[in-house]
Amino acid sequence: MTLFASSVLLAASLLSVPSQARTLFKYERIQLTQEYLDTLPQEDAQLFAFEDKFVAAPNKTATRCRYFPDDGKWPSDKAWTKLGKQLSSVDALIKPVPQAAVCYPGPIQDDVKCKQLTANWTNSYTHISDPTEILSPVYQGLTCQPPTIYNSGNCTLGGYPSYVINAKTVLDIQLGINFARNDGVRLVIKNTGHDFAGKSAGAGSLSLWTHNLKDITFFDKYVDDSGYTGPAIKAGAGVQAFELYKAASDHGVVVVAGEGQTVGVMGGYIQGGGHSPLSSLYGMAADNVLGFEIVTATGEFTTANSTNNQDLFWALRGGGGGTFGVVTSVTVKAYPEMPVTAASWSFDSTKIGKDRFWAGVRAYVDHFIDNVSNSTYSYFTISPNGNDVTFRMQPFFAPNKTLNTASNLLQPHWTTLTRLNIPINPKLTQYKSFYDAWQAEFPLEPQSDVQTAFGSRLFPRSNFESETGRNISFGALKDSVNAGQIIIAFNMAPALARGGNPDNAVNPAWRNSILHAITGRRWDVKSSANDILAARKSFTNGTMQKWRDVTPGSGSYLNEADRLEPNWQQSFWGNKYAKLLGIKRNYDPKDVFWAVNAVGSEGWTVESFDGLPNENGRLCMVNETISTTTSRMRAMEEPTPVMVV
Ligand SMILES: Cc1cc2nc3c(=O)[nH]c(=O)nc-3n(C[C@H](O)[C@H](O)[C@H](O)COP(=O)(O)OP(=O)(O)OC[C@H]3O[C@@H](n4cnc5c(N)ncnc54)[C@H](O)[C@@H]3O)c2cc1C
Ligand SMILES: *[C@@H]1O[C@H](CO)[C@@H](O)[C@H](O)[C@H]1NC(C)=O
Ligand SMILES: *[C@@H]1O[C@H](CO)[C@@H](O)[C@H](O)[C@H]1NC(C)=O
Ligand SMILES: *[C@@H]1O[C@H](CO)[C@@H](O)[C@H](O)[C@H]1NC(C)=O
Ligand SMILES: *[C@@H]1O[C@H](CO)[C@@H](O)[C@H](O)[C@H]1NC(C)=O
Ligand SMILES: *[C@@H]1O[C@H](CO)[C@@H](O)[C@H](O)[C@H]1NC(C)=O
Ligand SMILES: *[C@@H]1O[C@H](CO)[C@@H](O)[C@H](O)[C@H]1NC(C)=O
Ligand SMILES: *[C@@H]1O[C@H](CO)[C@@H](O)[C@H](O)[C@H]1NC(C)=O
Ligand SMILES: *[C@@H]1O[C@H](CO)[C@@H](O)[C@H](O)[C@H]1NC(C)=O
Ligand SMILES: *[C@@H]1O[C@H](CO)[C@@H](O)[C@H](O)[C@H]1NC(C)=O
Ligand SMILES: CC(=O)N[C@H]1CO[C@H](CO)[C@@H](O)[C@@H]1O
After folding, report:
1. For residue 209, what are the β-bridge partners?
2. φ, ψ of residue 386 in degrees (nearest 5)
3. Which of 241, 377, 509, 580 is geometrically suited to a Cys-Cys bond with 492, CB 3.0 to 4.6 A?
4. What is the pLDDT of residue 117?
5. Closest Cα to atom 3, ligand 11: which residue?
6. Residue 491 Cα distances to 296, 370, 428, angstroms
7. pLDDT value at position 3?
8. CA distance linking residue 489 with residue 507, whole number of Å
9. Could you count the other beta carbons within 10 Å of the beta carbon of residue 293?
10. Long-range contacts for 66-70 (Cβ within 8 Å, ≥24 apart)?
């Protein structure tokens, strides 16, 4: 009897592999504790208190706007100094100065430095390594740009934050969140600043800068309760694509991340969904997440994975950055390295004329479905230049395909182009690994300019199934180019062929889409605010409406979208929005985290100084919602008087 029982036990323990214990980076083990707060003078403890332990002074967060420097309610210099002293390193609290201050009258004006900065301005590294700069300066409000690029007259902070915490530990993040929440200060998170809509900036804010959280750990065999057993990588919130791909390659694996070299993988990218050169094979980056470590709005540091905070885990995989908390690290699945073949080619209308040019483009569009069914990803642009138009494939990316197979995929197209008498000089290369292919094929992308608005649309597979559908979709794209707009597009299918897609917050429109197309409208750099608004209106409600009209019920990718996207809740999340909003209300009822067009952001708006859509102003409640929101906040504040003053 006894023998029998123990052998059953043994068999059971062999079958059920124990799941992974919580593995924290060193910087995640340095945390703020209640025990520590209890040792501080009460006045200081109040500044940094956790939400469930202490409630801010009455009415503080119930004012119409977040406090702003010089409004009389902004925390005193003394309070900021106290914050600085509690952080894990002495220089972690930064009072930012825009880089281009060297170009304007003032104490640090320096013509030589200004020239160097101007020469380097469009290089994205110039901005990523800075605590406040963002890659879409239009949404910072265009103050303090190098004058030969955009003369802003003087150098003010504009949409940049008032203070930045260069976060090096979980402690720093907890202190920042608690301080901002308790003192009515707007909070923003900047990782790399790649966000298309300026979500990583904000005037009069305290910014948590996650860029330096760079740790990476590899697991040979990660065991997750969701059923996954296999290689995995845990990476810090500040890890960028070039660093993650290198680390993966060092261990002979690949991970699903973006094409851009400098994008911050574990910040806005993965939380917003994340498309990848591997998406037609492995889905969206968010589909591959096993767990997040996160500091929530209360200041608590916790895990969101398949067994812990499951609702938060669901929301963080596609629900968008800057909304539910500050993620400190993410664990993702990894897959074996594979060979990749990539191709690039281009042609333009100069010698062949527009009709042949468009016939060549059309021959490619006609095969979108066939190509992605072979797990390929292609990245192409169609750019007008005066009377001419250029098509550039850069690159066509065929993961796990040999030169021969990839050549078979493309040869029919090249034959068609030859038949159309369109000269091309294609380059086809087989790489031994994804890492080599990615490094060689994707150039460093520049910072975006000071006079363009971008928008995007997901085009469903069904649009390309019939000739009528292809005519209509192709017509809409062609019309935009003929109207002078560039198209930057991706042919991919991030629907998992094998095993189905995990249930998460990724925009359902991605699942049946095979084209993600981005376009932009430029305006004259000297345009008045009114002219810019008019140009934007005709872009958002004119051109982009034509794309919406041919893709009814679909949506747009929130990470590469128009800041003025109408009906963004449906567009970015479709039928998942209601559930996301419920999770937001539950984890962040006081809107400690706010970003434009983020889940639950409806009640607030940035009142910019120039009336343009940007971060250059106070964050205030939308007037109609004040009374209800305020009473909701008061109701929440009342029942928790823990400390007696
Ligand atoms: C050149 C370029 C190439 C790109 N390539 C791709 C691509 O291949 N695939 C793709 O899907 N997208 C791509 N994007 C879009 C990209 O996904 C978004 O710009 C994304 O927001 C970048 O995230 P980030 O953290 O680097 O940027 P940031 O601008 O720093 O942050 C973006 C948002 O996430 C929030 N956030 C950042 N870190 C955290 C955190 N730790 N916790 C919580 N919230 C956080 C910020 O507050 C902000 O709201 C590209 C963008 C650019 C400019
Ligand atoms: C708090 O708000 C209530 C209602 O608006 C007001 O009557 C009260 O005077 C405020 N208290 C403080 C300290 O501002
Ligand atoms: C760009 O910046 C680098 C330092 O990051 C500097 O060495 C270089 O001179 C700058 N380039 C130009 C053209 O000034
Ligand atoms: C900066 O210039 C703008 C526009 O000319 C002006 O409105 C603003 O008052 C100036 N700010 C400062 C601090 O001089
Ligand atoms: C999920 O998170 C909890 C809490 O950190 C942890 O105990 C558990 O092991 C995690 N599960 C997996 C599979 O990692
Ligand atoms: C890659 O190709 C090999 C050989 O054709 C195949 O066995 C393997 O399943 C492929 N991997 C993926 C992820 O498709
Ligand atoms: C891929 O697209 C090209 C260009 O349209 C086409 O010629 C080719 O047939 C497609 N591949 C497959 C497998 O259909
Ligand atoms: C598609 O467009 C072509 C060229 O304009 C036209 O000849 C063809 O009849 C159209 N097909 C359908 C089904 O509308
Ligand atoms: C587009 O039209 C809608 C509805 O008329 C309007 O609310 C919105 O402000 C317009 N968008 C822009 C950018 O003008
Ligand atoms: C909201 O109301 C306040 C006064 O209560 C006013 O100053 C502000 O301009 C209004 N904001 C908008 C966007 O109408
Ligand atoms: C290798 C491979 O998957 N080839 C497929 C490419 O797509 C065409 C059309 O869908 C299929 O017929 C091939 O089998």
Report:
1. 166, 190
2. 65, -125
3. 377
4. 96
5. 374
6. 36, 11, 18
7. 42
8. 18
9. 25
10. 66/184, 66/185, 66/186, 66/204, 66/205, 66/618, 66/619, 66/620, 67/183, 67/184, 67/185, 67/186, 67/204, 68/203, 68/204, 68/618, 69/162, 69/204
């629900």: which residue's tokens?
Answer: 319
Q: Is any ligand 9 atom within 6 A of the Cβ of residue 564? A: yes
Q: Which amino acid is at 531?
A: D
* Residue 380 CA, ligand 6 centroid: distance in Å: 26
C-alpha 468/C-alpha 609 separation (Å) is: 47
The pLDDT value recorded for residue 52 is: 76
Task: Look at the alpha carbons of 54, 57, 62, 67 in this order and tell me if their dihedral is positive or negative.
Answer: negative
Angle at CA 448, nearest 5°, toward 443 and 451? 150
The preferred substitution site among 20, 223, 311 for testing ligand 5, maximizing ligand atoms within 8 Å of CB, is 20
Taking the centre of ligand 8 as the mean of its atom positions, its distance from the CA of residue 469, in whole angstroms, is 10
At 236, is the secondary structure helix, strand, or coil? strand
Q: Within 10 Å of residue 322's Cβ, how many Cβ atoms?
A: 27
CA of 65 to the centre of ligand 4 (A): 23
* Whole-number Cα distances in Å, 71 to 66, 80, 177, 500: 10, 16, 21, 53
CA of 525 to the centre of ligand 3 (A): 26
User: Is residue 314 a contact partner of residue 215, using CB atoms and an 8 Å limit?
Assistant: no
Q: What is the dihedral of CA 546, 549, 550, 553, to 10 degrees?
A: 140
Domains present along the chain, CATH in parentheses: 1-209 (no CATH), 216-336 (3.30.465.10), 340-570 (3.40.462.20)
Determine the Cα–Cα distance for residues 251 and 257; give it in Å rounded to an integer.
16
| pLDDT < 50 stretches in the chain | 1-14, 56-59, 627-645
- Can you give the pLDDT at residue 62? 58
Nearest CA to ligand 6 atom 3: 400
- Prediction pTM value: 0.92
Q: Take residue 611 and report the two structure tokens written for it.
A: 């009336």
156 lines ligand 4 (CB under 6 A): yes
The preferred substitution site among 308, 312, 331, 333 for testing ligand 5, maximizing ligand atoms within 8 Å of CB, is: 308
Q: Whose CA is nearest to atom 1 of ligand 4?
A: 154
Q: Which amino acid is at 294?
A: I
Å from CA of 566 to ligand 9 middle: 7
Residue 538: exposed, middle, or buried by beta-carbon count in 10 A (0-12, 13-18, 19+)?
A: middle
